[in-house]
Amino acid sequence: KILLIHFAVMTLSIFTFIIWARLVPENLISFGFTFIIIGFVGGYLFWLYLILTGFNNLDLKNGLKSDLKKSKILLMTILTGYVVFVLIFMLDFDRENNDIPLVINILIAPILTYALFETAITLTKKFKYYDKNTQPNIWDYFVTMFMLSFYPFGLLMMHSHLRLILKDHYIIDI
Fold first, then answer.
1. Which of 149, 163, 168, 155 lies closest to 54 in space, CA to CA?
2. Based on C-alpha coordinates, what's the Rg of the chain?
3. Which residue, 18, 53, 70, 133, is the most exposed by fewest CB within 10 angstroms?
């Protein structure tokens, strides 16, 4: 049911962009693209948050330490970083001084990379622990990054796998 909200947010972001494009002057239309970025990237990160929330429920049931707050911070960092990337590329900097966007992007890129890798590491560890009760190997991390790369199908497979794990641990009834 909550995934329907995800798709509604993405659809609303497209409609918001269309309304924006009709109301603002032509030179500001490109800034409306941030509505679409926030809708799609935000929806993607919301879906990841739902998966991490499922693992949080498993952690609480099993008496393990939860790291949901850390995951929230990482996901918000990714969203903020993507919005900044998009806005920087849309701003019309002076043609002679293109160093400003480059410097800002060089500062943001490692932060975004860390946040994305940390999220993938967390997901891999959780899936491996609750599925097989073992530690992940290097191949498992690559599989998780591969799954995260194919939106929405990768997240759909991860979400359905989580639902099976939750069913096995009697958290939900399918």
1. 163
2. 19
3. 133
Structure tokens at 76: 């918000």
| Whether 166 contacts 172, CB under 8 Å | yes
Instruction: Grade residue 174 by pLDDT with cuts at 50, 70 and 90.
Output: very low
Give CA–CA dist 157/135, Å, rounded: 21
Q: What is the pLDDT of residues 75-116, one digit of tens each?
A: 899 888 888 887 777 766 555 666 777 778 888 889 988 999
pTM: 0.78
The alpha carbon of 76 is separated from its chain's Cα centroid by a whole number of angstroms, namely 8
- The CA distance from 148 to 144, in Å, is 6
139 burial class (0-12, 13-18, 19+ CB within 10 angstroms)?
Answer: exposed
Phi-psi region at 4: left, alpha or beta (left = phi > 0; alpha = psi -120 to 50)? alpha
What single letter denotes the amino acid at residue 4?
A: L
